[in-house]
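User: UDP-glucose 6-dehydrogenase. Structure?
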Amino acid sequence: MKIGVIGCGYVGLSTGVLWAVLGHDVVFLDEDERQIATLRQGEVPFYERGLQEVLARYRARTTYACGWSEWDADVDVAIIAVGTPAQPDGSPNLSYLQAAVQAVGDHWQAGRGTVVLLKSTLPPGTNALVHRWLQERLQFRGLSDQVTVVSNPEFLREGDALTDVFYPQRIIVGVQSRAGESLLRDLYRPLLTGPDTAPAVLQRPPGYTRPELFVTTPINAELIKYAANAFLAMKISFMNEFANLAERMGADILDIATGIGMDSRIGPQFLQAGVGWGGSCFGKDAAAILHTAEEQGVQLSLVQATVEANDRQRQIVLEKLHRHVPALQGAVIGVLGLSFKPGTEDVRDAPSQTIVRALRAAGAQVQAYDPMAMRTFAEANPDLAVAYTAQAADCFAGADAVLLLTEWPVFAELPWADLRAHMRGDLLLDGRNAWQGLSLSQHGYVYEGMGRGKIG
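Assistant: Predicted structure:
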């Protein structure tokens, strides 16, 4: 088949490269000239593990269109993976989606039967809206083609997007027609029944079993995506609230998480207490579904509480710091980790943004290191005066305290005794519970974790 992908962000590129690996011809379209120029040079304009190598290997099956004048309308499937940024009221901005749909309609080949596949995370009811937009555009052009619009939400983790593309746990297809369902089954058949097709750069997850392709209605598929992200965010916020209680009562949240995670109904994933969640999905999607619920006159109290608990957790980190360093004016604070999680350069809604901004507002000097996200953090916060260091050890120089905000592996083992001698203070505030407090105290540090009332 010939497949077009509209939007060259991490969802669009990660999804599109799957089809190239499976033998299809793929054309990627984006209106960002610099983005397309970078891709044509064989580079990816952001970090996603393994993506650049796989795109390079399958270059013969991929082309890049800079704007709609270069779009190849002779495609079997048009995948829309454009951004839907949050608006002030929490609702997603659908203007990029509408523009893409209208452009698809303007370049529609009569009788071609192109299927439009929605990968962008979209509020419930958007599939029907896209169908209407496209049908109206074709009617305006005097075309009588019946259009098929399929909702096929992505469930990708930044940093592990290719693993999730080639080894999905489930494939959700929201469709109203047999033709759309049949085409999606044909597309995904290699992942459902065939031999392992993943590139060598990826490792098959231990115990992996083939996914189920679950066919449902478009509005169900749209709600599945929002419900999944809201539930995962809620698990983290739930553990953070219990971490605060455990700490007050002298308990250790790590043991508590281990104990409840042994229950197969709960499982061990997303039970890691810390400074809170961030990134491009959880916060934006929670705001969007809360807005939808409000429009429908429905209360999503648990989702609202999830967001509030997450915001509060960032303030708790600052409160912990204040207890040890009461006067932040002129204090030197080292920050290890700026991305919202390891394995990515993404700082969108990262806890580091809230915390570093609060530290600077209080008059503290901030010296920060991240193995991948210092450039993106600086670009996202051009008004923040931060000293970006060449290595993690430099964050300790003259510091009154050092905060761990992202648990990069490089931070796991540091020359603790040597670094302690270079600090002015003695506090290590472990916002991810990644360090062992007992061993650190032996080197003269005061260790503060999250929810770790007793760690001995």
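The chain has two domains: 2-216, 238-448. Residues 2-216 form a domain with the Rossmann fold fold (CATH 3.40.50.720).
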